[in-house]
Amino acid sequence: METLTIIINDAAYGSEKAWNALRLTLALTSEQIKMGVNIFLMGDAVSAAKRGQHPPEGFYNLEKMITDVISRGVKVSACGTCLNSRGLTVDDLVQGVEKGTMIGLARWIKESGSVLSF
User: Fold this and answer.
1) Is the pLDDT of residue 1 over 90?
2) With a threshold of 0.90, does the pTM exceed it?
3) Contact, 59 vs 79, CB < 8 A?
4) In the chain, which residue ranges form alpha helices assigned H by DSSP?
5) Contacts of 89 (CB under 8 A, 6+ apart)
6) d(CA 75, CA 25)
7) Which pLDDT tens digit goes with each residue over 62-99?
8) Where are the domains of the chain?
9) Which CATH superfamily is domain 3-117 in?
């Protein structure tokens, strides 16, 4: 199965890049497509995986979307340096999100058929 690596750099809320990246991931991992996807969260995007989000009613919820993509077999990593600089730990994140490294991201890129950056 071909794998795509998606790198998300933008803040969780305020822009729709993280939301659109996760919407695309849901489409790519649907029964119709069934593509392998890795997601690497960098910079302010690490907050997209923060546990306990309470967006306004009617607004998208990135915590729920990340939980959904993980349940479909998507690997999600959050940059460890980016987490540390924001005072976050893996315990603050959605279950299944791993603390990532640049070496890990480099491996994903090397092994992927394509890479997208949001």
Assistant:
1) no
2) yes
3) no
4) 17-28, 62-71, 80-85, 102-111
5) 83
6) 11
7) 999 999 999 999 999 999 999 999 999 999 999 999 99
8) 3-117
9) DsrEFH-like (3.40.1260.10)
Q: Please, what is the average pLDDT of the chain?
A: 97
Q: Hey, which residues does 75 pair with through a beta bridge?
A: 38
What SS3 state is found at 102? helix
DSSP 50: B
Which of 45, 42, 36, 37 has the alpha carbon at shortest distance from 17? 45
Give dist(CA 109, CA 64) in Å, integer: 26
Helix (H, G, I), strand (E, B) or coil at 26: helix
Instruction: Look at residue 39 and tell me whether its pLDDT is greater than 90.
Output: yes
